[in-house]
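ok so dumb question maybe but i'm new to this and my supervisor (M.) told me to 'just get the structure for ABC transporter domain-containing protein' and walked off. so i did the thing. is this what she meant?? sequence i used:
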Amino acid sequence: MIEVSNLTKRYRDLTAVDGLSFTVGKGEVVGFLGPNGAGKSTTMRILTGFLPATSGTARVAGFDVFEEPLEVKRRIGYLPESPPVYVDLTVRAYLRFCAELKQLPRARVPGEVDRVAARTGVDGVMDRVIGNLSKGYRQRVGLAQALLGDPEVLVLDEPTVGLDPLQIREVRTLIRSLAGKHTVILSTHILPEVAMTCEKVLVVNRGRLVDYDTLGGLIEKHLPGRKVTLDDIAFLEEIYGKLVEAPPAGAAGEVRP
Ligand SMILES: Nc1ncnc2c1ncn2[C@@H]1O[C@H](COP(=O)(O)OP(=O)(O)OP(=O)(O)O)[C@@H](O)[C@H]1O
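this is what came out, is it supposed to look like this??
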């Protein structure tokens, strides 16, 4: 469903994404991990057709993101790092506006707006102006717009940032419930979030792929012989530390998924 091949993005003399290659199968939920500045948001912006790459290719649902960005945008729901929610609009007006931008059939819009609002728990604030909502509610509104039209692929950049613990649990449950039908790639700095919501983990550092595997595969590879269960979150911190703490220069990109 997502195929990234040798993707590179340079901002002047900074290489933010450096020869990244990976694939995500239909219905998989993949966690995207990496330190600040590793290139996660840049990769997500390229995948969603919002940013051109310097070189390499990216395909979503069989469409090239550079050659057919509209086909890609139609099939992708994107929650950017800072959702561009319009502070003067009510939640309902904003979601309707987003539905129109996504070119949903007019007759489907009210029902679809109600559906995503209920799924993200913003149905109680539909007539409130977004500027007056708490950060957590704004984040939910961002998530609601990503779900509009029931897209095959969801790209979520730090979906639980700004939420309170209860909301975080709800959003994680929501993300888990999307698995199977939707292909999800989500970035986060919260390691337990990955263990709770994702089947596979993609780790990047300095723009390069460091590892890409299932949680079980990572445990086998990096903590051999250790008995850990997926309820035991600390294992992921240990593996992550091994992967991103000062890998030898040039070696990071050599690890294959
Ligand atoms: N528009 C831009 N112009 C110049 N440099 C940029 C731009 N956007 C991102 N960068 C740089 O590219 C690198 C990768 O940034 P990116 O936001 O993709 O990382 P990230 O992994 O998402 O980080 P974080 O976890 O902090 O969100 C960083 O060094 C960042 O400063």
